[in-house]
Amino acid sequence: MSTVKPYNDPRSKKQQVEEMFDNIAHRYDFLNHLLTLGIDIGWRKKAIRFLAPFQPKQIIDIATGTGDFAIAALSLNPEKVIGFDLSDKMMDIGRSKAKQANAEQVLQFIQGDSEKMPFATESFDAITVGFGVRNFEHLEAGLQEMFRVLKMGGHVAILEASMPKNAILRWLFSLYFGKIVPLVGRWFSKDARAYAYLPESVKAFPEGNDFVKILEATGFKNVKWTPLTFGACAFYTMEK
Question: C-alpha 70: how far from its chain's center?
């Protein structure tokens, strides 16, 4: 997997990703819902429905951003949800959402590196990641850390952007992601690179069966993946 970074400078991918999300935090939710036509909400609901039968009590949402996945996880009636991310500015918006939802006692946001999480081994019953694994600087290291903090028998739900397999749809999505998304993102976020990084990172990511093999090599079992919305999103599920 080639390393794609948001900016053309020698800093680490972690440093660049943190800066990028800090830069676009004020417009992230607006642009996310606009550019996905609001379909991202349904994707997260599907992931939460997968976790519901297992009744997880301790949940961590990695690469939580502004906390939409973590907020959605509250419907599972957990004892604790941790939103974990590099960008504190993104999580400040999540903290405001938790306050509005009167969920501050259950939902906590912690800044940190997903490859070196400050949690004990087997701390969580469930892990969610929404459009964040391709932002890991070292993919395998991030996945190994997820495996470490997940309890035996625990479950993981990952949503990640992907490209359709159908040639015509793939061309249309390439046009949309490669031309329209960066243009709209630049207009609204004022960060010229942030939304150009999106299609670049999607193309570089080992999606579908390739990612399943990496997850299985990490130690996860019963790994499955489902394309959503004509393949614009890939939904991965697994357990430890």
Answer: 11
Q: Show me where the domains of the chain are located.
A: 13-239
d(CA 115, CA 95): 23
DSSP code at position 176:
I
Q: Which two tokens stand for residue 149?
A: 């903090």
* CB burial of residue 57 (10 Å; 0-12, 13-18, 19+): middle
- Give yes or no for residue 162 having a pLDDT over 80: yes
Sheet containing strand 124-130, strands side by side: 107-111, 80-85, 58-62, 124-130, 150-161, 233-239, 221-228
Give the separation between CA 109 and CA 80, rounded to whole angstroms: 11
Contacts for 189 with CB less than 8 Å, ≥ 6 apart: 23, 24, 27, 28, 31, 195
User: pTM of this prediction?
Assistant: 0.94
Question: Mind listing the pLDDT tens digit for each residue in 185-225?
Answer: 778 777 878 888 888 888 899 999 999 999 999 999 999 99
How far apart are alpha carbons 112 and 56 in whole angstroms? 23
SS3 content of the chain, % helix, strand, coil (to 5): 50, 20, 30
Kindly state the helix (H) or strand (E) to which residue 83 belongs, with its residue range: strand 80-85
- How many angstroms separate the CA atoms of 158 and 120, rounded? 21
**CATH architecture for segment(s) 13-239:** 3-Layer(aba) Sandwich (3.40)
Terminal C-alpha separation, the chain: 24
Q: How far apart are CA 46 and CA 36, in angstroms?
A: 16
